[in-house]
Amino acid sequence: MSEAVVQRGSLRLVHDGYVSSERANDLIAALAPELARCGADPPPPQRLELGAESVMAKRGKGSASRRLLRFVTRSPSRSLAAYRVGVILRANMVPTPRPMAALERRRAGVTLGDVLVTEWVDAPDLSGLLVSAGQDERASLISSAARSIAALHAARCCHRDLKASNLLSTPQGEELLLADLDGAWSSVEAPSYQRRVRDLSRLILSLVVFPGGGEALSEPSDEDIVRACSTDGALLIERYLEASPGLDADGELLQAWQAQALAWLREKVRVNRRAGRPLS
User: Fold this and answer.
1) Are 178 and 96 spatial neighbours (Cβ–Cβ below 8 Å)?
2) DSSP state of 125
3) In terms of Cα–Cα distance, which of 260, 87, 204 is closest to 157?
4) Is residue 127 packed enough to be buried (19+ CB in 10 Å), middle (13-18) or exposed (0-12)?
5) Phi, then psi, of 196 in degrees rounded to 5
6) Cys bridge to 164: 71, 126, 160, 173, which one at CB 3.0-4.6 A?
7) What is the rounded CA–CA span in Å between residue 189 and residue 125?
8) pTM, full prediction
């Protein structure tokens, strides 16, 4: 992966080398105020206008102790890690908003604040699309989500926050873009079966919480979970297996993954209830 670095005092901009010097200065000037306000709980992503182009700026999470730990372990900031995953996905033709840069504010090598910059995608997400979708359209959308996740895993990447709100539509409507990549990472090895099932289960959970009627089920019953696994979940897993080279899409594997997804969902709901955390 080829990266270019622009240093302006304590600010460090990392990009793919195709950003002009003038463009890099524009990005730094526009994002510097965001870094000045960075904290452990950043606000939602912001839309910024840079000339004729709209970009998304998302500040990275992280308390002071977590940022220090990243420095000690030589780990990149969340924004830089997400930017690099985005570059890998785009190189492997995985649908995701175009990564543009990561900007960091550093002191003595420690990243005190960071911002991820991608293209702005003005499109509804999967949860919004499902609200008005009929049965056939719902099946088509879930199949598109399965293909996008299969492409993600084929690129040897995973995403710990694969929920419906992080899958965006495209003008063509044939695929769904994987967004919010600060929950994603890459590996030198293909994802394990357990990791694949967990990523799929996370999406099924979001379909349980937001079944498509517009109202969230903050306390889904076991019947809600079983129903989701036998309908949307079964279709998602089946289409995923069909789109994944090297995986045997026979009925036995499908049933095994459905059972694992159901067990994961039940455990996730149980843990969140015990901790008093809402499902999202």
Assistant:
1) yes
2) B
3) 87
4) buried
5) -60, -45
6) 126
7) 30
8) 0.89
What distance in Å separates the CA atoms of residue 257 and residue 196, rounded to the nearest whole number?
A: 9
Phi then psi for residue 243, to 5 deg, are: -90, 0
Category of 156 on φ-ψ map: left (φ > 0), alpha (ψ -120 to 50) or beta: left
- In single-letter form, the type of residue at position 243 comes to A
> Quick check: helix, strand or coil at residue 201?
helix
Tens of pLDDT along 220-238?
A: 888 889 998 999 999 999 9
> How far is residue 6 CA from its own chain's centroid?
26
Q: What is the pLDDT of residues 137-168, one digit of tens each?
A: 999 999 999 999 999 999 999 999 999 999 99
Q: How far apart are CA 112 and CA 110, in angstroms?
A: 6
| Run of H or E residues at 242 | helix 232-242
Give the pair of three-digit tokens for residue 257: 């993954």
| Residues 6+ away with beta carbon under 8 Å from 266 | 222, 225
How many CB atoms sit inside 10 A of residue 106's CB? 18
**Assigned token pair, 114:** 């960071």
**Residue pointed to by tokens 């995985």:** 94
| CB neighbourhood size of 36 (10 A) | 10
**Could you tell me if 59 and 78 are in contact, meaning their C-beta atoms sit under 8 angstroms apart?**
no
Question: Could you report the per-residue pLDDT of 75-95, keeping only the tens digit for each?
Answer: 899 999 999 999 999 999 999
